[in-house]
Specification:
5 helices, mainly alpha, 66% helix
């Protein structure tokens, strides 16, 4: 959630959970001297981060579902979930996944 501040402070590395193309896009913009562009892209991703980082188990469900929608996993199911990811979570997750996939596609087109 504090990526731009971390970059401003000279962070050497960061490890995203997912959203790789988005994070790389932010990093490349920042490294190219376009802090404003990096900040704008980061702010577009913030609703996804706010939703996905509410709770560790919530994050696990969200990112498994995102990776499933990206074709990485054959199913969004988890082993013995403790946290109930209900239909409201699924609806919100699907909305934010659509946002994440849209940002990802946009960045893919810019770099192809």
């Amino acid at each position: 959630m504090q990526l731009i501040e971390a970059l401003d402070r000279g962070v050497d590395a960061f490890m995203p959970t997912s959203l790789h193309r988005i994070y790389v896009g932010i990093y490349k913009l920042y490294q190219a001297g376009d802090r404003d562009g990096a900040t704008k892209l980061f702010r577009r991703a913030l609703p996804i981060l706010a939703f996905s980082n509410q709770h560790l188990e919530h994050s696990i469900h969200f990112f498994k579902r995102l990776l499933w929608k990206q074709g990485v996993y054959p199913t969004p199911r988890l082993r013995a979930p403790v946290f109930v990811f209900d239909s409201h979570h699924e609806r919100m997750a699907d909305e934010f996944i659509a946002l994440a996939l849209g940002l990802d596609d946009e960045l893919k087109e810019q770099h192809s």
